[in-house]
């Protein structure tokens, strides 16, 4: 028997699962999706299949319009079957599917980056194209609480600051990206699929220990869970604290008289107003402005160096950031620009 | 040849090591130790031996008076030799040593806590007694950057919030505790001892995998260091960011009209002033007040629950915290008290 098509026909526990996802988006993220067109990134694995069903059940309540996109990376022998599975699933759920075949090995060789990074980039490029062509508002991905915990551990290892340390955002307006399952444990997704009688495709490519993410998944996260069986819950709480701090830091930014010159893609901030703030706040303002200029990860080492120069009012100082971004300290303003 | 007794007789690299420690205390922590009497916790291991030498070299410059304390836990067969080593070392450096013999196994059985916890408690009790009897100002321990990194990983595992997540403080005025080596990598301490020609006692008791700390030290930290050879540096930076945030959050607390009733050991805060602040700040104020009331670790889960009640102005609400502490929401004030 195929899974039911309406929320009211689900077993109560499965329905509650969906309603919690809706509440997370509406209450925790404060997003009203009414009238939006949502593109679901679908691989056919358990996570994205659960996301697709969940949204399908919520669509009439949330008044959203759904479409899906599937990418065949040309890496796995089962790729054709994965694509066929996605096609049948979308047909059964009555929604359009957009497909792409990518030569990720070729792209990786061309760009000189790793397979994982090349695949991620090509996938997101395709999704952005579909978003634009189909006039959709948001891309939805199935990242869940285990992914979030792995991400936080990776960020700790790589040396992130706060609040980035707590993991990826659930809503990224710059990339039109939404992760509605971010605080849902991975096991709940499989449970949900089993409860509604749905099937999915198993993906073995997530176990290659050549990738840090897989080493964290296989070696570190299980160790942490053994030490603290509530570790995932703790990471969800840490993420919530980080969200509060992120909002709090942003509030201060809006109080400053920040000037943006679109032609030069350049922000300037009055130095006196900056110096009236605490270092803790100044650092977050530098970061927000640099993130807003251009892509390129801002390193805390450089932020701390910049703040030393600001604190000492060393005009003429320049601090470089990845992605061709720089901060220039002048007599009365601090200027952020992207050198292209 | 025994190690030199004066800073100016050290190899330049060893002297620089000491001066960096001095600068950390004076500049980073903003502490002036001039005229203070410092009690060094000495086990005879590499870390505390390095701390003792380092302080001995700095004492004339910093104008501090030094004494040491050693605890024999009665657990290791070599305990007598460790004590003899400490006695000779302190005699050579011309400073008094206070010793205690503790039956930690017996104490652990009596209190029902683990050996590690009972030992830690008994050790600190003895150090506090010596502090009081000898009219000393601060207890100094040899915790270093590897300890800090392990501590941060353990805090992540156990579910700490921010800024506690970044690890133990370098200066804890409530316990008169100072950790001058907190941002110094452990290997630098052994290098320093080797450079000055000093010896130390090896302690094998730090490897028992029954303790989370030792599992983190042996299994997790090496993994993190393999992924990121600069991981220790990253943790020092994270700690600095946390310190800034800690100060920043404290500044807000001082702006509130907080009333303390010593007789009842109770704080009350006007609700309207609290509600004018962002949740991110309110949470830190609750935590600071609860930490100030009595010992007992404040859990973020409870802080978040309390903030929900405050935000909704649910007067009559009570939230319990470990250590007999509680928060009571009244019509116009939030009251924190310790029920003993």
Automatic annotation (TrEMBL), chains A, B:
Residues 38-218 form the tRNA(Ile)-lysidine/2-thiocytidine synthase N-terminal domain. InterPro entries: Rossmann-like_a/b/a_fold, TilS/TtcA_N, tRNA_Ile_lys_synt, tRNA_Ile_lys_synt_N. Its main location: cytoplasm. Keywords: ATP-binding, Cytoplasm, Ligase, Nucleotide-binding, tRNA processing. GO terms for molecular function: ATP binding; tRNA(Ile)-lysidine synthase activity. The keyword Nucleotide-binding applies. Gene3D superfamilies: HUPs. Its EC number is 6.3.4.19. It holds the Pfam family ATP_bind_3. It catalyses: cytidine(34) in tRNA(Ile2) + L-lysine + ATP = lysidine(34) in tRNA(Ile2) + AMP + diphosphate + H(+). ATP binds at residues 43-48. GO terms for cellular component: cytoplasm. One of its GO terms (biological process) is tRNA modification. It is found in: Cytoplasm. The N-terminal region contains the highly conserved SGGXDS motif, predicted to be a P-loop motif involved in ATP binding. Belongs to the tRNA(Ile)-lysidine synthase family. NCBIfam families: lysidine_TilS_N. Ligates lysine onto the cytidine present at position 34 of the AUA codon-specific tRNA(Ile) that contains the anticodon CAU, in an ATP-dependent manner. Cytidine is converted to lysidine, thus changing the amino acid specificity of the tRNA from methionine to isoleucine. This is tRNA(Ile)-lysidine synthase.
């Amino acid at each position: 028997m195929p899974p039911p098509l309406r929320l009211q026909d689900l077993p109560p526990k499965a329905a509650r699962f969906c309603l919690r996802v809706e509440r997370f988006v509406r209450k925790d993220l404060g997003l009203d999706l009414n009238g939006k067109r949502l593109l679901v990134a679908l691989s056919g694995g358990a996570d994205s299949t659960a996301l697709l069903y969940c949204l399908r059940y919520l669509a009439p309540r949330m008044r959203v319009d759904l479409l899906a996109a599937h990418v065949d990376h040309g890496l796995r022998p089962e790729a054709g079957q994965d694509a066929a599975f996605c096609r049948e699933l979308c047909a059964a759920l009555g929604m359009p599917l957009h497909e792409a075949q990518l030569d990720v090995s070729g792209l990786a060789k061309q760009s000189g980056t790793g397979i994982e990074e090349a695949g991620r980039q090509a996938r997101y490029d395709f999704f952005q194209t579909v978003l634009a062509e189909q006039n959709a508002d948001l891309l939805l991905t199935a990242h869940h609480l285990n992914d979030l915990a792995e991400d936080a551990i990776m960020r700790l290892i790589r040396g992130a600051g706060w609040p980035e340390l707590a993991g990826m955002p659930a809503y990224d307006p710059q990339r039109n990206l939404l992760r509605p399952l971010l605080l849902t444990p991975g096991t709940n997704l499989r449970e949900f699929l089993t409860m509604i009688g749905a099937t999915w495709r198993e993906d073995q490519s997530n176990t290659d220990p050549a990738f840090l993410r897989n080493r964290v998944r296989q070696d570190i996260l299980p160790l942490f869970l053994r030490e603290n069986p509530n570790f995932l819950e703790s990471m969800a709480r840490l993420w919530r604290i980080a969200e509060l701090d992120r909002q709090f830091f942003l509030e201060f930014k809006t109080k400053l008289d920040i000037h943006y010159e679109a032609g030069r893609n350049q922000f300037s901030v009055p130095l006196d107003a900056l110096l009236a703030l605490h270092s803790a706040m100044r650092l977050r303002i530098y970061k927000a402005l640099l993130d807003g200029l251009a892509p390129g990860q801002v390193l805390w080492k450089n932020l701390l160096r910049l703040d030393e120069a600001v604190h000492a009012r060393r005009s003429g100082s320049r601090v470089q950031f990845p992605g061709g971004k720089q901060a220039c300290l002048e007599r009365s303003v601090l200027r952020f620009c992207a050198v292209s």
